[in-house]
Design the sequence.
């Protein structure tokens, strides 16, 4: 394997969730680069059924924080990227949700590329109506898909709280024909 | 932005679909590296609800090809990665489908990292029962999510048939608060 290939594979496989952030400004340009990664995600019929509310204002993050058990993470992250499925752009429920997954993974990898910490908060969809209200978005048009919290990682706390990253081995979910 | 960051952002944003392949062996190790990228995808509660049938035998690819309009692509690709949702591992339909999307995007990026061409064939889910039968997988346990066709790109044909890659600009789907 070439050095370049192994570097990219290592880049993809080393992405991990960051849940502890320091208070340090994240430049808007960094978020734009991250969104650019999402923008190029694949979607069925290239329908790109995503919408993002980028939230940086502390009062807004506080309101979002009230909609999830993981509010502390949202408040301490410099940015909260609130992701919605644009229902009018949707054409197939399975494929639209897969596209959102690809989009959100690209955002996470984009943050990883920028040397920032990020985490996907999915549990907030339990209170999706509350989040729609914050942004005055009609639930008939936009469905909350999750939040990606992004900030400068608190490396000390991350190391201290680090749990072993675990995944099933390949032979548990792959068969060769 | 550091050289390394811009290199990774460029890596993510430059991934594109390849639909024309040359007949050239793809080493099994390359597919293992690609699967490793999928393996580290995020999923809700880390449930990793994926299963992959890696198909390389020509008769098998021919059977798969019969289940989709894009059969020519499947037959000409050296490998077909047939992705299923493991319904017994699933816990939340929205999150499970998002996880599959993140998994499949990681596979596509893995192929990109390896310098291989790849495309996500979603339309085959219209004939999911037929695909389950090929692998003798019960539809109560495994739901077809799509196929990723992987091979060495036919650069000449790709260039000749190249259409402009298009995505909505950021300001059409992003709002800043």
Sequence:
């Amino acid at each position: 394997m070439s050095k370049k290939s192994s570097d990219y594979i290592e880049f993809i496989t080393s992405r991990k969730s960051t849940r502890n952030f320091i208070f340090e400004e994240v430049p808007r340009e960094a978020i734009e680069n991250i969104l650019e990664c999402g923008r190029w995600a694949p979607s069925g019929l290239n329908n790109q059924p995503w919408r993002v509310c980028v939230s940086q204002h502390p009062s807004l993050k506080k309101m979002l924080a009230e909609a999830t058990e993981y509010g502390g993470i949202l408040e301490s992250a410099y940015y909260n990227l609130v992701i919605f499925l644009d229902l009018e752009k949707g054409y197939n429920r399975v494929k639209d949700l897969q596209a959102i997954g690809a989009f959100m993974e690209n955002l996470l990898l984009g943050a990883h590329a920028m040397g920032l910490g990020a985490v996907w908060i999915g549990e907030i969809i339990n209170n999706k109506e509350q989040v729609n209200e914050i942004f005055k978005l009609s639930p008939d048009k936009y469905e909350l898909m999750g939040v990606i919290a992004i900030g400068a990682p608190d490396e000390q706390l991350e190391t201290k709280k680090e749990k072993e990253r675990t995944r099933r081995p390949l032979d548990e979910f792959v068969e060769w024909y």
Remarks:
- Chain B has one domain: 19-157.
- The first helix of chain B runs from residue 3 to 13.
- Helices of chain B lie at 3-13, 28-39, 58-65, 71-76, 93-113, 128-134, 155-161.
